[in-house]
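Record 1 of the preview.
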Amino acid sequence: MNFHTRKWVKPEDLNPNGTLFGGSLLRWIDEEAAIYAIVQLENNKVVTKYISQIDFVSSAKQGDIIELGITASHFGTTSITLRCEVRNKITRKSILTIEKLVFVNMGKDGNPEPHGKTRIKYIEEQFNKEDDNDPS
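->
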């Protein structure tokens, strides 16, 4: 799993206990997962369908830097299933895991639409595809 997104835990992200508010973390995860799904499915019209059990195993406090890791675990006909782990960037201690986040590929009419994808597309492939189309 690659960890690309990092967040700095700031005072406005804290709950009354002085630790990271779960709602802030879930918002960051949903946004990051949606971006991942958009890139994988090559469609900016995806919606969150399902998020499985969320397992908070530790907390983060003000000043911590956390990182979000997301990877695709399954490609359906109109959906993509992702897995997420959040950890402390410095200590590498796990903060949260989510085994399944399902996003649905939507068509222009607002209904689920087959995406035709069957495997993870890595960034290197995207650049190679762009290089192949470069007329210079």
